Amino acid sequence: MCLCASQSPCVSAGGKSVRVYRIQLWNYSRWFGKMYGFINTCLKSLVIERFGEETWENLRLMAGVQETFMTYEIYDDIITLRLVQEACKMLDVSSEVVLKLFGEYFFSFCKMSGYDTMLRTLGGNLVEFIENLDALHSYLALSYEAMNAPSFRVERMDDGRILLHYYSDRKGLYHIVPGIIEAVAKDFFDSEVTMTILNQSEEDERTGKKEHVVFHMVQKEKVTKRKAQTRQNNSEEEILEVKKDKEETMRRMKARYANLQLCPRKRSPWELVRSIVMLGQGNLRQSFTPSYPKTLWIEEQAFCNAFPFHIVFDSDLVVKHTGVNIQKFVPGLQTAGIRLDEYFTIVHPEVIFNIQSIKKFINSQFVLKTRREMLPEVQQNQPTLKLRGQMMWMESLNCMIYLCSPKLRSLQELEERGLHLADIAQHDTTRDLILLNQQRLAEIELSNQLERKKEELRILSRNLEIEKQKSEKLLYAMLPTHVANQLKEGKRVEAGEFKVCTILFSDVVTFTNICAACEPIQIVNMLNAMYSRFDRLTSIHNVYKVETIGDAYMVVGGVPVPTNTHAERVANFALGMRIAAREVTNPITGQPIQIRVGLHTGPVLAGVVGEKMPRYCLFGDTVNTASRMESHGVPDHIHVSPFTFSVIKDKGIFEMAERGEIEVKGKGLMRTYFLLKNLQKSDEQIMGLVDGEMCVYQEDLEEETDDLKEVSPEDMNAVLKVEEDAHKEVAENGNNHTSPPSPSSLHSDKSSSDHLIQFDITPAYDSPNDFKHLHNGHHSDGINTKFCSIL
Hints:
This is Guanylate cyclase soluble subunit beta-2 isoform X1. By secondary structure, the chain is of the alpha+beta class. The chain has 24 helices and 23 strands. The strands form five sheets. Strands 13, 14, 15, 16, 17, 18, 19, 20 and 21 form a nine-stranded mixed β-sheet that branches. A six-stranded antiparallel β-sheet has the order 8-7-12-11-10-9. The longest helix has 49 residues. It is elongated.
């Protein structure tokens, strides 16, 4: 991938106003074009690795860009610009810091992406590495055809300074360069580099304004120094080891001197010493001086055949001679005295076509393209021919030679331009490059398809996970979480006995009359408004909603998760229900509706009943008694059994009022109570409107796991077997009187199976006449279905 990361834009330093950022965004959008997803993927990887997934998600949402990027897909530069801009705002740093950090990481990302070996072989030192970057970009352009890479030029000054010239169509990217170069020097050449900006300007080139930044590059080698031994008394072994090292060094120096080749010129003694040993990280290095012939032993015709694609031109761009094959495809070059710029334009580097610009980028690969209008009519309908090669200046002849080959990416392009492999010299690696790149392009296309499929699978997987969460949310709304998880795993859910819990029933006063006078949709809207408020309260007080049928609402505390505060939670929930019900209006009168609430505390048996539509049901006389408390209650009051009263009376939390003894159907006389208010918490706290709707309870730190016992299927069958004797038992118990229980009775170790019931939701009555207004019309009439079976 393009090592200079030129595909990504940048913004000015952080701290500027939003308006300035928007102006910059518009300006950059005029200059920038397209780029590959490789850059954005690198930026995403950097943010995730350094700052975490959550930071990337926030940055992506703020920038308004997609979640993933395809490596070989082309994206608008504005996407990267937005990411960098929002990163500067989010981290509160300047773009210089962000871009330099990106440059350092981009080098590592290229290595991780499979370009490590390719980068290591660019040059033997840092200067050679930089000088060959343009050649690397030219090669990568075979795969990334739309890549718009910058150009680099190294200038060695007379005073020994090394200047790095950076040219780019995209402005403001130069802060990436120090990050990349410093990372390369540290990793590949074990050195430290300091880069200082000497000049920043804009130059008029062929394609318009091009940013030109000059860096002063100072490289410091990291020399490994031997640590001096500070021991006062060195042992004989250490002295012998040092002596042995010295003798080995001298032996290698003598062997190196004996193997030196004769040089064509006489050198000074100091030059001989330097050629023997060059101290560079402890390694011996060989100096080399080339030898040139006095006469070039090659014929003109043989040269033009050996290099069929070459052009020699002088400082005025006048063509002197060309290779044989380039004459075949551009016949106009055979005309004497023609200028090179009449038939070709420079594609890369994007400079003005003159000898000065060519000399400036002499170390870059040059790509020339034929002018269509100068070709024969037969070839004008064909794609234009591009040449890629090296410029070399011949000072003695005052001429430039351009050694080149056709720039082709595939066999298809070769055929479209009317070329054959035979037209390319056998020593030219372009022949092999075309064949190899043909396979490479096929691999890229396959990789691109795999990336698309991977992205599609990721999206499908994410959508599936969303739907799964919806299904689980619906399942958890119907069953307790641990019960639902066991059912999902295909396990059997055993029934459990809870020694003590508090159950609540409620219904709407005169609900039957309301139903008779209203449209069905009005009833639905009223119940939905009321139940939505009640459901919210269940989360605040951490009680379990068992079921709703019609206007009846049932809640239990201490089941399925045992807790010591079950009665307190349900009591506060009842107070919240009464407040919430006042917010719902009667469709007939327009006045707030009234509800009747009943509470009772005792043991229950809980389990899952059914397979097609499983329900988590409660069994026991506690359910029946709680239902009686509701049906014998008073409108807008919370009716509490003596069992519940005995649990919460000593806590000093609630204000209670004694109702007295009343006749309870199936229970006889019972001394009951009314729950009036909470003495310690306000209505806002009970409704969860304080501190961000936090729960008004401290979670129990110890779970009462001993209260839950497994019940065998035989015990469950025994419970169901006594259902047929339910009515007879009610008649027998009807003449009995019930007195308030002792505290020990609420914590008995065993519940009799004769008092277990299976319920649906609404209180049980023997006949339709039992629905007639009990206690001054406290219950709705007209319901003729038995919802509760007393065992």
